[in-house]
Amino acid sequence: MAEQQPKIVSGLQLWQWRYEAIQAAIASDVAPAEVDWLLQEIAGLDRLALRLESFKNWPQIQMEQPLEELDQLWQRRLHDRLPVQYIAGVTPWRQFKIAVSSAVLIPRPETECLIDLAMAAASSVSGHWADLGTGSGAIALGLADVLPEATIHAVDYSLEALAIAQTNAHNLGFANRIRFYQGCWWEPLKVLKGQFSGMVSNPPYIPTSILPTLQPEVVNHEPHLALNGGADGLDCIRHLIEISPSYLQPGGVWLIEMMAGQGDAVRELLQNQGSYCNIQIHADLAGIKRFALACIQ
């Protein structure tokens, strides 16, 4: 059996590692603040201890992983552009701490707006809501939080992603409010056709030709199944526009995230389908038109 590396280090050892990691980050054009965020997650240090460097004098610090392992992962962050969230295994999203792995997209801060839009558009806090392409489960968790009497149905094609989402639902106390299904978009929910109060999705929307030009953190490490939206980026959105009216009840909410510049095309697709009304395009906090919202007539 391989000998387990110790997970306890001295404050001085960790201080030295932090100093070298910050220098290496600066040299590699990685934000030095990532080092401290990582140490908050993996070594349980707080911002004050990091800022004052008071931990330097502590006799021992309990780590979630051995320092040698952390250093190897940090080298991958610098040289392979492995996202820091995958190193820590968690990311903050809304008020949650969400577990992530390379099986799921890292939930982005701008996606948090989907939850606020859903809450504002919901005619009641109960009923059935779908999160299609749930990934880490972030949207399902957000919906369960703001719609306390609703049942959330979370679907993903990837079993690995569903395992992460279920872990998050369990850890955050929503296991009894969210049901999980493996499958493609609406397919696993046929038994509830016509009964949904709302659908929220952050589908793949990157045009295939643009994928290779994305940041290496994204293109080399995040799952392409969750990114690739076909030739114009709208393949999955078209499908959701076409299929959703038979699953949503009259007045039901249809809400998605999309890429900057897709708003006009999505609005036109919704209008041409003929089942939608109150079509709205909403901007994120940076002013980028990123969300499309409509209701079923």
Features:
297 residues; alpha/beta; 36% helix; two-stranded antiparallel sheet; 11 helices; 22% strand
Molecular structure report:
The protein is of the alpha/beta class and 297 residues long. It is built from eleven helices and eleven strands. The protein has helices spanning 11-27, 33-42, 47-52, 67-79, 84-88, 112-121, 138-146, 159-171, 216-219, 235-243, 263-273, and strands at 8-9, 61-62, 90-93, 96-99, 126-132, 149-156, 178-182, 196-201, 248-257, 276-283, 289-296. The strands form three sheets. The chain has a seven-stranded mixed beta sheet, sandwiched between helices. A two-stranded antiparallel ribbon has the order 1-2. The longest helix has 17 residues, at 11-27. The chain is elongated, with a radius of gyration of 21 Å. The mean pLDDT is 92.
Compact overview of the structure:
This protein has 297 residues and is α/β, with parallel strands linked by helices. Helix content is 36%, strand content 22%.
Radius of gyration: 21 Å
Oligomer: single chain
SSE order, one letter for each helix or strand:
EHHHEHHEEHEHEHEEHHEHEE
Count every helix, treating DSSP H or I runs of 4 or more residues as helices: 11
Q: What is the terminal separation in angstroms?
A: 64 Å
Mind summarizing the main beta sheet? 7 strands, mixed
Class from helix and strand fractions: alpha/beta
Q: Order of strands across the widest beta sheet? A: 7-6-5-8-9-11-10
Strand and helix map with partners:
Layout: E1 8-9, H1 11-27, H2 33-42, H3 47-52, E2 61-62, H4 67-79, H5 84-88, E3 90-93, E4 96-99, H6 112-121, E5 126-132, H7 138-146, E6 149-156, H8 159-171, E7 178-182, E8 196-201, H9 216-219, H10 235-243, E9 248-257, H11 263-273, E10 276-283, E11 289-296
Parallel strand pairs: 5-6, 5-8, 6-7, 8-9
Antiparallel strand pairs: 1-2, 3-4, 9-11, 10-11
